[in-house]
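Form 7-S
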Amino acid sequence: MSFDLIVIGTGPGGYVCAIRAAQLGMKVAVVEKNPTFGGTCLNVGCIPSKALLQASERFEEVAHLLPKMGINAGTPKLDLAAMMTFKSEGVDGNVKGIGFLFKKNKIETFAGTGRIAGPGKVEVKDASGKTQTLETKNIVIATGSDVAKLKGIEIDEKRIVSSTGALTLDKVPGRLLVVGAGVIGLELGSVWRRLGAQVTVVEFLDRIIPGMDGEIAKSFQRILEKQGFTFKLGMKVTGVDSAGKTLKVQIEPAAGGKAETVEADVVLVAIGRVPYTEGLGLKEAGVALDERGRVKTDNHFATSVKGIYAIGDVIAGPMLAHKAEDEGVAVAEILAGQAGHTNYDVIPSVIYTAPEVASVGKTEEELKQAGVAYNVGKFPFTANARAKVNQTTDGFVKILADAKTDRVLGAHIIGAEAGEMIHEAAVLMEFGGAAEDLARTCHAHPTRSEAVKEAALAVAKRAIHM
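Output:
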């Protein structure tokens, strides 16, 4: 069977790439090794975690926020099995949606493990071991990423879990120890904290959320501590003794020093993710990897082998589903002779805790390191009418603008629905807009988004409500 394009992997990057290529008139096939489409994101990542974040947030609201509004529903009772069913139904709907889109766009699907068997050839091995070889003009590697392992600690997905196991626990752990203060650890830690777990986070660095604007990260940590999180920063996990009823976790200072033991019922290893390239036949095909095991690509997503491209978590850049989607569209358009492009300076990032944390563009630390002169505008949600009346006043908006041109270089928000508000800054930045443009745009009242306008006004030291 011969195709114009074969995409290996049907996560956000892969399925979007396939659909866009089909829209552009190509004969497209996808290869997926898992039983369902959607990759990590839809099956064991973004989508199920957001379902549990939503459900656990509502659970906590019933107990603590609704009574303040005059709504007394009594003490909420957790039915964890039903909550897991709610999560699974959401996942199932999204996964089936991709299957529908493949049929709609006449994309051939092949179930099995894909391997590049040579120029223009993809070998697919199904669950029974039977193989078939497909021919194609182009191949896109969109195999995503896998859980990063911690040396000497074996993940059993029952008591010592990755993000996958943390989404399917059959009871709320009394004590949850999270290894890694990144997005995944803090989101899943939030879920189980709201449902009743005591959560301790161990982080090798001296701060949470590395790469995020430092001021935002400090504020975020204080909010999480107020919610009940315990942080052990500048510490590393050296071992987990699972012989007894409870897990005994050995930790010690990252720089060396006295070790201590912390007991936990469940340990979540959330130290990041690594590109998934196993079994693809990349070495044999001559596809070059970088020092971190990622597929090397040029500015047009081309690998070292003609006709083979790569996108998403398997290449350099932030491991974000929407970044992979953008790259999928771009490479499909490039293959069609168009000017496909991904702007890496405007890739929003969101942490879906409560409150949410969202950012786009540069942090203060990055601007300082680059020697860029900038102005800062900040506005707290304590001064926002909608946030006040809804009692969601944690956090603030921060706008960074070029000191000479006023062009917005970065926007950072911590607060309720920050993930929705960040996009007006992203659109502005795509058009090279200035803080003045944002400040002079009329915002509806009362909305939380008014805080974005006020932060833009604050860049020029003329915020109205502060």
